[in-house]
Amino acid sequence: xxxxxxxxxxxxxxxxxxxxxxxxxxxxxxxxxxxxxxxxxxxxxxxxxxxxxxxxxxxxxxxxxxxxxxxxxxxxxxxxxxxxxxxxxxxxxxxxxxxxxxxxxxxxxxxxxxxxxxxxxxxxxxxxxxxxxxxxxxxxxxxxxxxxxxxxxxxxxxxxxxxxxxxxxxxxxxxxxxxxxxxxxxxxxxxxxxxxxxxxxxxxxxxxxxxxxxxxxxxxxxxxxxxxxxxxxxxxxxxxxxxxxxxxxxxxxxxxxxxxxxxxxxxxxxxxxxxxxxxxxxxxxxxxxxxxxxxxxxxxxxxxxxxxxxxxxxxxxxxxxxxxxxxxxxxxxxxxxxxxxxxxxxxxxxxxxxxxxxxxxxxxxxxxxxxxxxxxxxxxxxxxxxxxxxxxxxxxxxxxxxxxxxxxxxxxxxxxxxxxxxxxxxxxxxxxxxxxxxxxxxxxxxxxxxxxxxxxxxxxxxxxxxxxxxxxxxxxxxxxxxxxxxxxxxxxxxxxxxxxxxxxxxxxxxxxxxxxxxxxxxxxxxxxxxxxxxxxxxxxxxxxxxxxxxxxxxxxxxxxxxxxxxxxxxxxxxxxxxxxxxxxxxxxxxxxxxxxxxxxxxxxxxxxxxxxxxxxxxxxxxxxxxxxxxxxxxxxxxxxxxxxxxxxxxx
Length: 651
Fold this sequence. Notes:
- This protein is α+β, with helices and mostly antiparallel strands.
- 51% of the residues lie in helices and 17% in strands.
- The protein folds into 5 domains: 1-37; 110-172, no CATH class; 190-225 and 500-589, no CATH class; 228-249 and 385-491; 269-374, Chitinase A, domain 3.
- The longest helix has 34 residues, at 380-413.
């Protein structure tokens, strides 16, 4: 089919024109766009659909957000079925919450909205010295999120309403210590054991293999001796960084950018002050506050007579433990760092000037301004390199967006060669040999474009292998576009026995050694169970889930799960590839009451148990709501793969 399309492009263009134009005439442009954009339903909550396109965009946005906050993360770790399904679950939970808010008529009053907005740290930082909100900065803040002030406040109100859905469950959850301790004591339990090891490696010398044995094993396990499929390829990469390096910016453009953004290149004024604090909380009795203020007033009179003794007076009298030892010094601070009454007074003083009595929520202050760092605007020359990098970055991103369409279209439309796209965009055609579908772990990092799973899947697709066509344009975790084509392909094959004989011998020896260890260990277990007094075992050790004593984890787990009703008890544990272990469980040890490490572990465990219980109750209530609002997730998690999404396929 694709061969026909490639060979008859003009016929297909005419046919598509005939099919599409009537569609526009019948449903209109808006209707046509809605039809294209709707996408398939992936879930439905209370009759409201969640579309495939919504899911795709949410996955992309989450990956971009995580990449922005963690630049060094390997984004391939996020390109998994589990991550994608987790995003879908989040979208479903949001829709369930919206339905619950509507059903219970949960609302957030204007007063509560105002209070919560006032207490929001990001918004509080926008208040000026007079306490008024800087509306322009507020608009910039909400605008950076793509919202108007009204839209931001509506979203904030919705979030506050949504919190009420699960808040009652979360805050009413509790875990009695008696119940918690039963669980934790079982988890923290210690047992005294003796372990006899029948290590497989100790039996290797007893294994004798013939050539016939090796050939039989080789023929029975061909998948263990495969040479993977390989390809020699050529490829081109469209890279933002490469575009950035090719851009030159004139001094005039840089100066113009500086003039338009001059506010970004200035530092605000900072002040350094010392203070004497006499503590008096606002909730203190009036008599206590009156006495504290009188004491501060007396100290102020003393300082007015001898301003140079401020440090000594602060050391002797200030009740601020953080600054008293330093003579009251608070170092430099800018606006917004101190409580408002203190800040207003400090920024109203001249250098070396004393304030009057300043009342705050902490008590009564006497402030001395000791230094001023005036606001400073960095010159154009000082920030020229910084501006150059920023302008180049902006232009490179714009150029990349424009070139990306050309790259994508050209690699597809002229799919028998990479030369057309390389010539159009001045890209280098690179080559690489012996590329495999699953690259070695050492090469699978974000900077290696040839280790991008989506690119490798496209490269080893049937169309690319059989027709030697260009792959689709694939975006890498490093924000590059890559397209490649196979120049030589070698299918996967079973290596000849002569080449892998040593590997066959090692694998079969390990298998037979393990079988011998298991056989002897099981026989010894049976004998010791029959006659416990005949058991010859190493010295006893105490083990727990926290103290493994360098014993195989599988043995520790089996020992701690064993029935303790009849002790002492013998159990056998096989650890595939390592050997067979016989463990004698002597007794259970009661926790030591005076053990501080145990007490700390128990305290931490109680906290974690309570959190887990709250999370479990939250999840149980969420399941109730999902059922109430007829939630239907149409994607089967077990069948979800990292295959391209609908939006990927449409590109």
